[in-house]
Amino acid sequence: MTTVSSIQTARSARSARSSGTDRCTIVASEEGVPLVTGEHVEYANFDYAASAPCLTPVAEALAEALPRYASVHRGAGHHSQVSTEAYERARRSVARFVGARSRPADAVVFVRGTTDALNLLARSVPEDCTVVVFESEHHAALLPWEHPASRVGHVVRLPLPATPGAAVEAARTALRGAPEGPRLLCVTAASNVTGEIWPVEELVEAAHAEGARVVVDAAQYVPHLPFSLEETGADYVALSAHKLYAPFGSGVLAGRADWLREAVPYLSGGGATRLVTEHDVVWNDLPARHEAGSPNVLGAVALAAACDTLTPDAQGLLHIRESVLLERLRAGLAGIDGVTELTLWGEEHPRVGIVSFTVDGLPAGLLAAALSAEHGIGVRDGLFCAHPLTRHLLPGGHDQAVRASLGVGTTWEHVDRLVGAVADLVAHGPRWEYADCDGRLVPVPDPDRVF
Ligand SMILES: Cc1ncc(COP(=O)(O)O)c(C=O)c1O
Questions:
Q1: Which of 309, 352, 438, 446 has a Cα at 20 to 30 A from 240?
Q2: The overall pTM is greater than 0.90
Q3: CATH H-level superfamily of 33-55+312-444
Q4: 109, 254 in Cβ contact below 8 A?
Q5: Which of 121, 142, 192 to mutate to test the pocket of ligand 1 (most atoms within 8 A of CB)?
Q6: Could you tell me the pLDDT band of residue 16, with boundaries at 50, 70 and 90?
Q7: Backbone dihedral region for residue 385 (phi beyond 0: left; psi -120 to 50: alpha; all else: beta)
Q8: DSSP letters of 87-101?
């Protein structure tokens, strides 16, 4: 029997320390990260919104599956059967996690991630579908509808709404004014730039009243809060495993089966077909129709393990803990001269554990480089693949921002270290030299060069 003792140690698992969340720990390196001074410190990871570290139960599930993984839906051998069963069990776990409806049954299609899921939907909508989308979206939700290979007939891009209520009204008006025919509203549940939570249920209600469907980009929402297709009434949901503590290359598009069942697969290949002759192809039914190629069984197993671990109760408790850390972080940053937090709907608007900010006098790239090299803190800098929104929110004099995002392994000490480091950099500036290397600032000299 395979054990996971080698990948899980008492020190490496950062406990969420809440009853009901005992299994919600992450696998972390014991080595820490090097500073330019030569010291090593525990890594303060504030880049969960990009990719979250691995949950311990995810690593355990993988360790158990690894010795027996084999081809899915293809082989007669024992391991193939075990893998096929694991893959389909994973689909059921994900269906539960996203609150998939049973009548009529929502499709749950394994894909590579949210980008893949939304591109799949863009190629699966009925011809000439109108898609309404806010300018604030992540590029993965903003752009697939405009791709030449998509079946979308008409895209309506809505400007950034001043309030959540204005978002609902703008969507309603746009859908009402859209040409006759199928219509789809695409909306994010939580912004990857500000963490702000969008009024999904109200948008669904407004869209349905206009006869339109709704796809929810839940990439940043589901790592923090429970989401249910059934409860929100949303028609589709897209998510990525690697943001949900299962960083193994899978994701999901779940929702109404009819459009997906009718669509020609956008990936052609083995598994998606039922019959191929010299002249003809008969495509498979769902979900295999949209899962051409050898299925990523380990990715599916990992995602399912995360879904099974992050029960609504566990997520509720984690959210309380995370909210305390987030408020401490935001309050700490707000107390530093020259720091501006990016927000679309104001400081009081509910959000998940993401805060983007600028610091006067410190370019985002330099700040991020110094936080890493001098303090062992990982943040993201740039425009976060949501250029229109981020540019709109940036205060004058800034062309990029820094994003700090929290998750299961974030500790009080990490938060205090980040606030202290930003305050120190504001007061004294970086204590090291930095130079441009392929568009990214790196310490010079760098005693512990990674590349
Ligand atoms: C809100 C949002 N949507 C979509 C994506 C794209 O996810 P992926 O890169 O996993 O396809 C991201 C990634 O950052 C995101 O934050």
A1: 438
A2: yes
A3: Aspartate Aminotransferase, domain 1 (3.90.1150.10)
A4: yes
A5: 192
A6: very low
A7: left
A8: HHHHHHHHHHHTT--
